[in-house]
Amino acid sequence: MPEYDYDLFTIGAGSGGVRASRVSAAHGAKVAVAEEYRVGGTCVIRGCVPKKMLVYGAHFAEDLQDARNFGWTVENARFDWIALRDHVLNDVTRIEGLYTQTLENTGVEIIQQRARVTGPNEVTLADGTVVTARHILIATGARPHVPDCPGHEHGITSNEAFHLDALPRRVLIAGGGYIANEFAGIFNELGSKVTIINRSDTILRGYDESIRDRLLQISLTKGIAFCFNADFRGIEKQADGSLLVSMTNHDPMEVDAVLFATGRVPNTEGLGLAEVGVELGKRGEVVVDRFGKTAIDSIHAVGDVTDRVQLTPVAIREGQALADTLFGNKPTAASHDCVPAAVFSHPPMAGVGMTEADARNKLGGVKVYLSDFRPMKNVLAGRNERALYKMICDSNSGKIVGIHMIGPDAPEIMQAAAVAVKAGLTKDDFDATIAIHPTMAEELVLMR
Questions:
Q1: By CB atoms within 10 Å of each CB, which of 8, 222, 302, 346 scores lowest?
Q2: How much is the pTM?
Q3: Domain containing 357 — which CATH number?
Q4: Could you tell me which of 308, 340, 273 has the C-alpha nearest to residue 16?
Q5: 437 part of the active site
């Protein structure tokens, strides 16, 4: 057996890379991780963790209003963006330290440099150092896509949104996916005038139609504006610092900030992958088999850089599976079937399994159960917002093939429901379960 400096060399210390590295080390492998920025990756540093904190902060706008009908008097309430921003960034630093500590405690060497693959078992660091490894893992994630239009340099992405020095009074958000709708909810609740522009006439493509339509309806009621079938023509910075945005099918619009939320692109440029024989897809993604192996037996990839399912828990599961396969004597392929997902909009939505359209196309006969209700808290608060729960079943077997919902705490409820759908439970199984009353979640076992 040839001698290598490491058993595993990971490029990228995001969720997938950290999990694969620390579990491999726990299995007895000698592991190093190269990270050119900060340990934790997109999720911890500039993604789901700080974003969820902003969602919490933004929701107090409604909670303070609703509190009056619950007997509370809140006087002189005011919002301080800088205070929220700094608390969030400080907690990100705390979590980054925990990730770093976890790697170090398992014996993983952290190398604070950019790394490039220069051979099937060779990596060259930014300072010119060459190291060898029995296995190389690409876990470099993805980055926000920025449209190629005149003046695009005047816009920001979700990366910069966490560091703004002030809330924009008027913000234009480009995109119709989960990032666009989440930041639309955050900025709107915090007092910005928000407009979403989207190239098509559909938001949240891939989510169940009834649920995304309900979010659109509620968002419009909350004051978020939408411009559909709109492509950028250009962004012009004006003398007063505002931005004049030109787009197709709509009049020009003057705003204070443009946030691009138009998808994410795998980070593979400059890594030397194609040069050593690793196959890349049309979007630059690393092509892997179900075990995370590339066209080169010694090179692997997990997470968003593979552009399969761009979700943090999926990257973590893939990293765990790879470590078990390579060093745990337990060949494991991460399952991408029945992956639950949530959109932390206002209100949040969540889903697992097939949408109604998917189920009808694939199964033919389906039964759909709906619960369209006004949550108890909203009733007493005088808020007319309604929740919608949807269960899709195979009409022959009664098996639940999809659950989708929008309403308060939908993602928290969905996590438990996803276990049931993954396990293949039926509508009868849900009907046989006694409800917890009064809760919103009880609607899942009361649908008729």
A1: 222
A2: 0.95
A3: 3.30.390.30
A4: 308
A5: yes
